[in-house]
Every structure is written in C-alpha cells, then in structure tokens.
Automatic annotation (TrEMBL):
GO biological process, one term: phosphoenolpyruvate-dependent sugar phosphotransferase system
Record-given protein name: Phosphocarrier protein HPr
Record's GO cellular component terms: cytoplasm
Xref: PANTHER family: PHOSPHOCARRIER PROTEIN HPR, PHOSPHOCARRIER PROTEIN NPR
Compartments where located: Cytoplasm
Signal peptide: none
Domain of life: Bacteria
Amino acid sequence: MEMHKFKVLAETGIMSRPATRLVMAAQEFKSDIKLTYNDHTVNLKSIMGVMSLGVPQDSYVEISASGEDEREAMVGIDTYLEKEGIVEQVQESADA
C-alpha cells in the first residue's frame, strides 16, 4: 500500500470543482484509492464520498492506494494535486 499525507492549499478546500477533478483523476486507476480526513475514510472514486468529508483549506488529509497499479496511482494523483495547487505533500519526519 502507498500512502501520502497532504496539506490542503486550495481556498475552497477539496469541494466542488477540485473534488470532481480529483475523483476523475482517481478513476483512471484500477487500485482501491482512499481519502482520509478527521478519521473518516471514503472511496476517492466517489464524488459523494469526497464531498461528504467537507475538507476545508489548511487541513490535513491522507490518500492511500492499494492494488496492482498503486504506485502509478499515487504518482498520478500527487502530480495532479500539486500541479493544480490543491495541496502540498507533507514530508514525514524521520522520528515519526
């Protein structure tokens, strides 16, 4: 399983247009992709699930991928999110 932590930069958070485009990006992969915010996890391929989280700006989320193309899925989603300015990846400390 691949997992990355992000800080949400988008002024609207992960709602509306950013949520829709993120779901579309996730649907390109076969892996099971999840979005976690405040201990709630949803399928990243479900717009209703993503919107139900109500992720605001300056919050932290985790995205995980599990499956045959999990690495490619994470690279693709990371690239999309950072290119669009929706999030920045949070580097985990060596002590964590």
